[in-house]
Write a structure and sequence with these properties.
The chain contains twelve helices and 15 strands. The chain is α+β, with helices and mostly antiparallel strands. A hairpin with a 6-residue loop joins strand 7 and strand 8.
Length: about 500
């Protein structure tokens, strides 16, 4: 029985030793993959992957189980000098990274020794395993312009990942990427140029970097201020140019309005239409603008006198007659018709508009301070160019007479005229006196309501409408309802004249 147990133990030990000889482990080195490892141990890639089903990736530091290894082909290991992390390696042995932390430490050691080509392999491996500390040194490796794999765009992406993922923010892995990204935004290298973003990331750098700042940051600050100054200057020049253009446009518009106003004023002061000018040029003359002319119609002894004057640029005629053939006392020259001067009756009417005054709600016409000319083309007369007669629609005054003859005819046809005590001449009615004031460019005539006195026609200037008796038999004075107690004429407001 004892011999049997000893024999069983020996057989089990031999089986275990045989199984151990058929299986071994391999740690993945830099530059190795499934194909090279399988070739090294004399097995197929499918056998190697079947023995290691946990992951399909072959990364540095992974332990692979080798089934039934054959002849091992020796390969020269990668030699990496250790930095200051206490890694147990020498020039003869490879550095084996068993975790992302160890991988990052090796990559950082190589990066700090300026061995960027070797460092970028370890740092990429650490970044793929989720170590965010690898982004900043990776960006610095890609930014080295002397290397073949130099790429500012990739470096900017790594820096931005470091800014996004790195915690805490006072770590160099966050601070320096802010500075580098600010530089990229300012110069437009690797990123689209954006001075505002450059200022933002530079302020982030200053916020967490503290004082004093490094030389690189001082130079960047100087360039950033210069760029911002240039942009502000350009924007200011653009704003001034826009303001200048707006001012020029506004001045041109004002000048155009002034020219239009001047043109309208000139047209008003020279109120003769193109057709009238053409007619005048054909006739070769215009009607007179001064002097008085007197006419008689022999059939019924109707007399009329006309006097020329200027009203707002118009050639006007005031008329006085002992007949009823003239309904208006002013006529305006309207040009030449069939070789004769035509005059049309008109009156300057004050412009009004309806307004509601008080609580009644009834609109009352109120004067606006402006006026317009009311023309009546049916009331007109004609004068030949030689002024020998006065042609009226109701009948021509066919004879030209003198002033004395006109006065004598007026005296004979009107019994109300009395001789003057001073010189034997008669007191004959005359056309209203026309007064033109340049200050307000208006034509004034005596007020017909008060006869030019300026006094109220109801109370004759006293302001009351008479006396009456009340129950106590005392005298009471009542305000005039026409002038409301002022005593002034309600038409001319006491000045004795009105404008047309």
């Amino acid at each position: 029985m004892t011999r049997f147990r000893i024999l069983f133990f020996i057989v089990a030990l031999l089986c275990a030793m045989s199984l151990q000889a058929q299986r071994c482990e391999h740690i993945v080195q830099r530059g190795e993959n499934f194909s090279s490892i399988a070739q090294k141990y004399g097995i197929t890639v499918e056998e190697l992957k079947a023995s290691n089903p946990a992951s399909s990736s072959c990364y540095v530091g992974r332990k692979l189980l080798i089934p039934n290894p054959g002849q091992v082909i020796e390969r020269k290991p990668v030699k990496v000098e250790p930095y200051d992390y206490g890694l147990t390696s020498s020039l003869e042995d490879s550095v084996l990274t068993k975790s992302s932390t160890t991988t990052y430490q090796v990559g950082e050691a190589l990066w700090k020794n300026n061995k960027y080509s070797e460092a970028i392999v370890y740092l990429n491996s650490a970044a793929e395993k989720g170590d965010v500390r690898a982004y900043y040194p990776l960006g610095d490796c890609y930014s080295q312009s002397s290397l073949d794999f130099h790429n500012d765009g990739t470096a900017a992406v790594m820096y931005l990942k470091a800014i996004k993922e790195m915690r805490p923010k006072n770590d160099v892995g966050y601070i320096m990427p802010c500075l580098r990204v600010s530089k990229y935004y300012l110069t437009g290298t690797g990123l689209k140029k954006d001075v505002k973003q450059a200022r933002y990331y530079y302020n982030e750098y200053k916020k967490y970097a503290g004082q004093p700042i490094c030389t690189e940051a001082k130079l960047l600050q100087k360039d950033l201020v210069a760029e911002e100054t240039a942009i502000a200057k350009a924007e200011n020049e653009k704003r001034l140019a826009v303001a200048k253009a707006e001012r020029a446009k506004r001045e041109a518009e004002q000048q155009r309005h002034r020219q239009q106003a001047t043109t309208a004023k000139n047209a008003k002061n020279n109120h003769v239409t193109n057709s009238q000018k053409a007619a005048n040029s054909e006739s070769g003359n215009k009607p007179p603008t001064n002097g008085g002319y007197y006419y008689l119609r022999t059939s019924d002894n109707t007399t009329a006198s006309i006097g020329f004057q200027i009203d707002d640029g118009d050639i006007c005629v005031s008329v006085l007659s002992n007949g009823s053939i003239f309904n208006g006392f002013m006529y305006v020259y309207k040009g030449i018709v069939n070789g004769k001067y035509k005059f049309v009756s008109y009156m300057k009417m004050p412009e009004t508009k309806p307004m509601v005054i008080g609580m009644s709600g009834i609109p009352i016409p109120v004067m606006t301070g402006k006026f317009y000319k009311s023309l009546n083309n049916m009331e007109c007369f004609f004068l030949p160019k030689d002024l020998r007669q006065l042609e009226v629609i109701s009948g021509t005054l066919n004879k030209r007479i003198t002033k004395e003859q006109f006065q004598k005819s007026f005296e004979d046809s009107n019994d109300s005229y009395t001789p003057s005590t001073s010189g034997g001449s008669v007191n004959m009615p005359r056309a209203p006196k026309i007064e033109y004031q340049k200050a307000d460019r208006r034509l004034y005539v005596p007020c017909r309501s008060c006869g030019g006195t300026g006094r109220c026609r109801t109370c004759n200037g006293t302001g009351d409408r008479g006396d009456t008796k009340n129950r106590d038999e005392t005298t009471m004075y009542w305000k005039c309802t026409s002038c409301r107690g002022s005593g002034r004429c309600d038409i001319c407001r006491g000045i004795g004249k009105i404008y047309r």
